[in-house]
Amino acid sequence: MTTTPHRPAFGTVLASHMAVARYQAGAWGEHHLQPVAPIELSPAAHVLHYASTCFEGFKAYRHADGSIQVFRMDRHIARMRQSARHLVLPEPDAAQLEAMVRAVIDRCRDAVPEAPGALYLRPLLFGTTANIGAAATPASEASLIVLASPVWDYFAGGMKPLRILVDDLNTRSAAHLGMVKTGGNYAAAMGPTLAARAKYRADQVLFCPGGDVQETGASNFVLLRDKHLLTRSLDTSFLHGVTRDSLLVIARDAGYRIEERPFTVAEMLEWVKTGEAALSGTAAVLAGVGTLIHRDTEYRVGDGDVGPLTRALRAQLVAIQQGQAPDRHGWLSKI
Ligand SMILES: *Cc1c(COP(=O)(O)O)cnc(C)c1O
């Protein structure tokens, strides 16, 4: 991650207020806004022992007309509900979660930075039932909290091409939970990622169990070449990124051939001789890969710098998010 000296790193600053709702006795209670403060939790809380937790991450942008616009809020709310379902946590009510997001943004309106900064929204759900014998029993009580965090230009220090370790041994998550935005998946990626940083100066690990390319610890993976985009087709093994989906739409609009299918490490290494590789996700939108490291061999991606297709697709999506290009697909919600 790149920072300038006067801008805090992504996620380290919280806006002043959060929205909170509790699930008890089979129903969600009213939500309320409160100043961000420590929360009270039993040391026997379900989440602390059995990792019953999921979250979301998306952004609200300040447009030139002063309005605040949230990018694809409906998709993120739907994914949060899907994550909850897979973890057998109480599903947040879509209308209530949207109201909580809107309330936080409205209360923290002044904290939304100018573009290219944004207000990052982080809804979070966790099981609170106090029972240390509940390894095979779902939480019957839960909390839903919406936090917000002002974030600044991710690439303020310039777009540096990433070094990515291609790991064909480790798996990022249980096969049926890759599509769930749950804390345990990040815990699973942490060890391999830190080891790759120490041993290879790698920025991220691309998980490719058995040679099957999936994604990195927190980003989807795309290959680009000659107006052709290749990315893994949706299955339960990886997170279905909203950025990924948006890029596919924009690339298709721009005349790209879109291919969604499984592909192997061997095919990827062949592709990058003349093509581009990039990571996609809300935080950076699209980040170019310069080097792939596989079994102690370094493979340069294209000319080793962030490629022109990566830069152009990123610029097109960012222009829509920031209101400099028309929102043809109805992706923005005004607050
Ligand atoms: C959040 C996340 C992504 C990116 O999803 P977006 O909706 O594009 O932000 C990709 N992979 C993982 C593992 C993630 O957690």
SSE layout and pairings?
Layout: E1 17-24, E2 27-28, E3 32-35, H1 46-50, E4 53-55, E5 58-62, E6 68-71, H2 73-86, H3 94-107, E7 118-127, E8 142-151, E9 162-167, H4 183-200, E10 204-207, E11 215-216, E12 220-225, E13 228-231, H5 242-253, E14 257-260, H6 265-271, E15 276-281, E16 285-294, E17 297-300, H7 308-321, E18 332-334
Parallel strand pairs: 9-10, 9-16, 13-14
Antiparallel strand pairs: 1-2, 1-3, 1-8, 4-7, 5-6, 5-7, 6-18, 7-8, 10-11, 12-13, 12-15, 15-16, 16-17
Helix pairs in contact: 5-7
Description:
A hairpin with a 5-residue loop joins strand 5 and strand 6 (68-71). This protein has 335 residues and is an alpha+beta fold. Strands 1, 2, 3, 4, 5, 6, 7, 8 and 18 form a nine-stranded antiparallel sheet that branches. The protein has seven helices and 18 strands. 25% of the residues lie in helices and 28% in strands. It folds into two domains: 17-151, 2-Layer Sandwich (D-amino Acid Aminotransferase, Chain A, domain 1); 162-321, Alpha-Beta Barrel (D-amino Acid Aminotransferase, Chain A, domain 2). Pyridoxal-5'-phosphate is lined by residues 57, 181, 215, 218-220, 239, 241-244, 280-282.
